[in-house]
Amino acid sequence: MEAKATLSNVRISPRKVQIVLDLIRNQSTEKALATLRLTPKAASPILEKLLKSAIANADNNHSMNKDNLYVSECYVTPGPIMKRVMPRAQGRAYRILKRTSHITVVVKEQED
After folding, report:
1. Fewest Cβ atoms nearer than 10 Å: which of 13, 42, 74, 112?
2. What are 53-106's pLDDT values in tens digits?
């Protein structure tokens, strides 16, 4: 049995989220939450809240034991890109891409 939590259109680049997701993949939920609390990255508080949501989904919707959960899979996919313009010298304009992410965290119960 698995429980999932997703977060769509987060205003952070998928590259930056992927670095933090690699730290918590295949970790127990307690260790993953501790890692996220101590990681000084912009994606850490977002992923901490999402992981807590996945744990709550496992507990409330699927009656899993919170103590036996681990992060079985977590991934990020690019969301829609917002295009903006930055004025430059001599009347030019450079395009700025404001990237968004769709993040998914799946937790499973360990078999003893």
Report:
1. 112
2. 999 999 999 888 888 999 999 999 999 999 999 999 999 999 999 999 999 999
Residue 112: is its pLDDT beyond 70?
A: no
Instruction: Name the one residue in this structure whose structure tokens are 């259109």.
Output: 9
Distance of CA 82 to the CA centre of its chain: 20
What mean pLDDT do residues 35-45 have? 94
pTM across the whole model: 0.88
Give the domain ranges of the chain.
Answer: 2-109
**Could you give the C-alpha distances from 17 to 42, 62, 94, 109, in angstroms and in order?**
8, 27, 25, 24
Helix (H, G, I), strand (E, B) or coil at 19: helix
Judging by DSSP bridges, how do beta strands 93-98 and 2-10 pair with one another? unpaired
**Residue 28: strand, helix, or coil:** strand
Euclidean distance between CA atoms 29 and 34, whole angstroms? 9
